[in-house]
Amino acid sequence: MCQGAQAACPLPRLPDRDSSFHMVKTSRRQRSAPTIIDVAKRAGVSPMTVSRVINGENNVRPATRELVNSAISALNYAPNPAARSLAGAGQSRIGLLYSNPSAGYLSEFLVGSLDQASRRDVQLIVERCEPGDHEIEVARHLIESGVDGILLPPPLCDSPALLRLLAEEQVRAVLVGSAVPPAGQLAVSIDDCQAAYAMTRHLLGLGHRRIGFIKGNPTLKASAHRYAGYCSALEDAEVVLDLDLVAPGLFTYRSGLDAAEQLLDLADAPTAIFAGNDDMAAASVAVAHRRGLDVPGDLTVCGFDDTTLATTIWPELTTIHQPIADMSRAAVDLLVSAIRQQSPPDQRHCVLDYTLIRRQSDAPPRRRPHSAHP
Predict the structure, then answer these.
(1) Beta bridge partners of 319
(2) Are 180 and 308 within one domain?
(3) Is 6 part of any domain?
């Protein structure tokens, strides 16, 4: 749904047992015409490379360019002509600035944004930056190049310095994944607080009472909201919050390794670990295996995001599905609409649905001794 302003996280309601806690298979979106993804698959290249060829950029090898052009011809691919038919609508140029440490998150975000940019007949310029002063330098470069707007996925969506620069330069931007975007700001997100609440209640429903939690990057508002959902679920179940079961993380695999070691070193270790994203959950599974623990027999591990990593490890992760590609598509739509209408859209903040996906990494706590080897 889209809403005019972000409300404070309400006391979440326990989702219906029959509709929330089950395997969900998302059907493929029906397409009536070939997309940039289809061209990329036929040419054996990335969607970004196809975008560079379409936009006439020079940093593509001649052989690769020929492959892409051949695929375009074979598929009779063309950007959506509806966008061109808008009165006075020339091709818009939007920037995508990123520094996300999760390759899985970034990959899905790029696929969605490139696909929708193609459909809306806009040129997408992708720039990577390092957190800190470099993000300001790269953002200034994008602004000076004449982009009409900028997409900001996490963690840049919550960068005060970056948001201040864009406001000063009067550059339109869409924040993706910010739990509490500034008033009046274009944004796309899910309800991180209620999603984390649902996962924690799921673990409580399995019988777990010592549930470890690995926080995400402290500079991101979504991290605080996921932690708030975890705490709220424990409170509703009358389980006392044990701060020893809360470990710091940064949404990186490495930080997940350190956090899992910290939690599993406790004399009264948790029977379940809920990590703030899939990267840290995958790291927790690795630490458990290294210690001779069975997942989920000895330790339940759950994540958040449902990136490709969630189904490329064993056991596959129970996680919260965040529709990352759809969020990036919605962000492109919001930005392009704002640019071509020359005025802000009525719907400024789109909140998409999340889904709890149950796979093989969760189970009731073990009720018999096990022989783990440190």
Answers:
(1) 357
(2) no
(3) no
Q: In whole angstroms, what is the distance from residue 323 CA to residue 295 CA?
A: 26
Q: Which residues of the chain have pLDDT under 50?
A: 3-8, 10-31, 80-89, 369-374
- At residue 227, the pLDDT reads 98
Report the chain's mean pLDDT, rounded to a whole number. 84
Same domain, 281 and 249: yes
What is the three-state SS of the chain? Answer: CEECCCCCCCCCCCCCHHHHCECCCCCCCCCCCCCHHHHHHHHCCCHHHHHHHHCCCCCCCHHHHHHHHHHHHHHCCCCCHHHHCCCCCCCEEEEEEECCCCHHHHHHHHHHHHHHHHHCCEEEEEEECCCCHHHHHHHHHHHHCCCCEEEECCCHHHCHHHHHHHHHCCCEEEEECCCCCCCCCEEEECCHHHHHHHHHHHHHHHCCCCEEEECCCCCCHHHHHHHHHHHHHHHHCCCCCCHHHEECCCCCHHHHHHHHHHHHCCCCCCCEEEECCHHHHHHHHHHHHHCCCCCCCCCEEECCECCHHHHCCCCCCEEEECCHHHHHHHHHHHHHHHHHHCCCCCCCEEECCCEEECCCCCCCCCCCCCCCCC
Q: Which domain holds residue 211?
A: 192-321
Phi, psi of 255 (to 5 degrees): -65, -30
